[in-house]
Every structure is written in structure tokens, then in C-alpha cells.
Amino acid sequence: MASATFVTSLEEEVNCPICQGSLREPVTIDCGHNFCRGCLTRYCEVPGPAPEELPACPLCKEPFRPGGFRPNWQLASVVENIQRHKARSGPAEEDACPQHGEKVYFFCEDDEAQLCVVCRAAAEHRAHTVRFLEEAAGPYREQIQKCLECLRKEREEIQEIQSRENQRIQVLQTQVATKRQRVISEFASLSRFLEGQHSVLLAQLERLDEDILKQRDEFDALVTGEMCRFSALITELEEKKERPAKELLTNIRSTLIRCETRKCRKPEAVSPELGQRIRDFPQQALPLQREMKMFLENLCFELDYEPARISLDPQTSHPKLLLSEDHRQARFSYKWQNSPDNPQRFDRATCVLAHGGFTGGRHTWVVSVDLAHGGSCLVGVVGEDVRRKGELRLRPEDGVWAVRLAWGFVSALGSFPVRLALQEPPRQVRVSLDYEVGWVTFVNAVTQEPIYTFTASFTQKVFPFFGLWGRGSSFSLCS
């Protein structure tokens, strides 16, 4: 292995600088550099810019006399020994010009063609920029290096996006798994409650049915008794009527009085108390109704965002914003308030933040907007380090994820504002923040029409964000 490496290194030392192949009939010129006799002869035949000038060495550019070639027999012997060693080791393939069979060692930059010495001397390449292969490859290597750097940078960006999106997918999968378990738990609890209510209500209905049957039997017995008594009187009167006058008139007044004073009782098949119990039975389902309502509220609460009880932070409010005493309403005013300057306060953008902020979780709040007198309103979230002093750029790159509501249109403030086509301008906007997933969603709180959704990667605390412009414009936080 060491011998082969030495031979390879020695072979590189005895290569012709022109053809890049092993020296053939090596000759030495005035500066001491060695070349193939044929390569140097053809090199001298290529006309230079000034025919009277001596040719320059291809390596050191020193002039030399074309007729001053000195054979280098010692170097020729070394080359012969190397070639003999290579012959024993196996033939090596060399790139050759397909047209002339000569070694390719030039590159024409005009035609982007690789040339041999014969090609280089051809008329079509004499006026072109022709360089040695290695010399010509240098600038292209630099360009390739720049391309590689750009591609590697873009690949890193794609990998970062892939990593971020994979994390977002994992968070969503965790949320879905949690919701699945919550749904299973809630419905299992509801199923147990429904089974209990099912048994209770059926038992109550069974008791009502039994009471109805009992009162029916009592009613039937009473009616049967009354029918028997009336039937006996009717039979008695029918017999009395058919008797002779003497017998008919015997005790006639007593008989008539007994018939006339006989009052017919009118029994009821169902007592008023039982009827009231039947009418009141739907009230027995009120606990079920309350439980179902509570179940749906709890289920929606578990599956939806957590309602955020937020209030405005007066330490961040621009002096042109008038805040209510409970810090849940704001109104724009051209009159500046006497507000002390502090690092948290906006001094140019008429904006205000909410207290607290969020570093995780899923939160939602509703904002009611009043633009009856014109103006516009901003609603959204901002990062903790959002610019408070000077001009505030309303775009995600500067930590602002918001929509602008104006009279007659709504815009999403992305890298470039986008005017949104909505069925109707929202007067109440629900803002929902999913910190881990990176979603900021806006929905018309009245019609539930989606407005816009931003996707971000939050790494710091974010705050609910509001802004107002124009006389009379205002907003309030809904409970």
C-alpha cells in the first residue's frame, strides 16, 4: 500500500503541466520547468497577442526560447520506470479527445467545451478564452460552493420547519387524545346517570299505571253497584205500573218519593290527585334536563378553549385611550390623558394590552366593537417584547398577530395586509389562542363565521392586544 502511494505521488510529480499526463519525451526550458516535447511544440505554435514576443512558460510565465528545449533523459528514465510499474499493476484509463485522441487539458469558456492541444489550435477557438482545466474549474468551484451554502441554508430552514410542524402535530395529537379520553369519560358518566334516570322514570310510570288500574277497578265496582240499584228500582216501578189500581195506589207516594229522592252519583274513573300526578310527570324529567345541559356545557368547555377573564392594563394604554373604571372598555379620544410615561406604555400607536398574558394553554375571549362613528379597531395578540415606543409595525414578523376592523371592511394584518371577504362585518369578535399549536383564530361571535387564522411559533409570553383609531370608536370585553 505504501509503495503504491509513493508511486502515485511520484507520478504526479512527472506529469506534464500542459496535458496533465505523463511526460513524453520530456524537455526542460530556460526557467527549469519540464514539459512533453510535443505539448510544448504545439503550445509554441499557438500565436500570441504579439507575434514578435517570446512565448511564456505555461507555469511561471517566464519567457523562453522556442528552440532552446533541452532533453531531460534522467526524467524520461523515471517516467519509463513509473509506466513500467503501472503496466504491471494494470492499465489506467485516461480521458482523451474523441476527435483527435489527445489528452484533454483545456477548457473553452465561450463554448463551454473541453479541448485537447489540437482543438485549442483550431481556428474556431483562437479568439476564445481558453484556460487549463484546473484553472477554469476554480471559479466554477466557487460558484458551486456558494450554491451549496445556499442550498444547505435552505435545507436547514426546511428542517426547522419540519421540526416545528412535527411539534405542532404532536401537540395536536396530544390534544385529540385528551379530548378522546374526556369524551369517553363524560359519556360514561352520562350513561350511568341516564340509566339511573331511566329506571327512576320507568318506576314512576309503573306506579302511575298501577294507580290508574286500581282506580279503574274501584270505578268499575262503583258503577256496577249503581247499575244494580237502578236496575232494581226500574224493575220495581215496571211491576208497580202493571198492577191493578188498588195495588198500584198502595204506598204509591212512598214509592215515588223513594224514586225521586234517589240521586245518581257520578263517579270519576281517575281522581283529580292522580290526574295532577300524571300532568306533573314531565317535571320529573327536569333533573335530566339540567344534567344534560350541564353535560353539554362541561363537554363543550373541555373540547373548546378556556374562557379567559381578561382586563385592560392601564400601564400600557396610549394616552388617547379612555379606559372604564373596571378596565373592560376603551374609547378613543383626541384629548390626551395625563398618563405618566413608562417603558410599558405605547407612545405612538393608540393601543393597549391586557393584564397577565399567556405562556401556554388554550384561551378565548370576545370583543364587542362599536365603530358607529367611523374609525377602526385592532384585535389580536402580541409578543411580550413588542415595540412600545415609536412606530409599531403591525405584522407577525414584529410580534403582532391581529385583524383590523373598519367601517365596511376587515383586514388580516399579515406580512402584507389582506382584505377579507365576509358575509357581514362582525360586531363581536371571538379571539382564540392555542399557544402550543401556535394558532390565533378570529371568528364572528354572533354568526360563528370564521374570519382568519394565523399560524405562529410562540416562544415567549403573549398578551391580548387592542387598538383604536377615530373619534367615537370604542370596544368592550364581553363576559
From TrEMBL:
Residues in coiled coil: 141-168
Alphabetized UniProt keyword annotations: Coiled coil, Cytoplasm, Metal-binding, Zinc, Zinc-finger
Domain annotation RING-type: ranges: 16-61
Ranges that cross the membrane: none
Domain B30.2/SPRY: from-to ranges: 290-479
UniProt GO cellular component terms: cytoplasm
SMART domains: BBOX, PRY, RING, SPRY
InterPro entries in alphabetical order: B30.2/SPRY, B30.2/SPRY_sf, Butyrophylin_SPRY, ConA-like_dom_sf, PRY, SPRY_dom, TRIM/RBCC, Znf_B-box
Keyword Zinc listed: yes
Molecular function as annotated in GO: zinc ion binding
Main location: cytoplasm
GO BP terms in the entry: innate immune response
Localization: Cytoplasm
Residue ranges of every copy of the B box-type domain listed in the record: 92-133
UniProt record similarity statement: Belongs to the TRIM/RBCC family.
UniProt-recorded name of the protein: Tripartite motif containing 10
Species annotation: Molossus molossus
Biological classification of the source: Eukaryota, Metazoa, Chordata, Craniata, Vertebrata
